[in-house]
Amino acid sequence: MSSFTPTQKTLLSDDINIPGIFFQDVEGFLLTDIASYGSKDSWHRICVDAIRVVDVVDDNGILNEDVKARDFILKTRPENQFHVFMINFALCKFREEYQNETEWEECKATSDEERALGYVMQKELQGGFVYHQSARYNNLDEKYQMDG
To answer: Is the pLDDT of residue 6 over 80?
Structure first.
């Protein structure tokens, strides 16, 4: 027997039938909790992996306007390894929504998803990770004269 009310069932049904929404239970912990779960030796690699996830999303023509460290889950793997999952895509836009490459690049430069994650983790881990901006975002900063 279901524990949902008829209204909840309707709302849930509407949400589940929206193209693009995917639900998956990922057991793990938030990237923001890395100091409690991962060894200090693993912090740099894990943060670099999280930034790579941001870059893969970018490579696929997606702008995430709200990248936060709490939007990443780390799933423990054998031998104290971790798999990084990005879990929040609520404020994403697609390349096709922009009129031209200049408009797209300006938005990418302003959002700077890498820095939004990298600097926060650098501050959070107090020397356990040092963020270095990628050439991609460095070029955007120079082109659109963004301040870091």
So the answer is: no
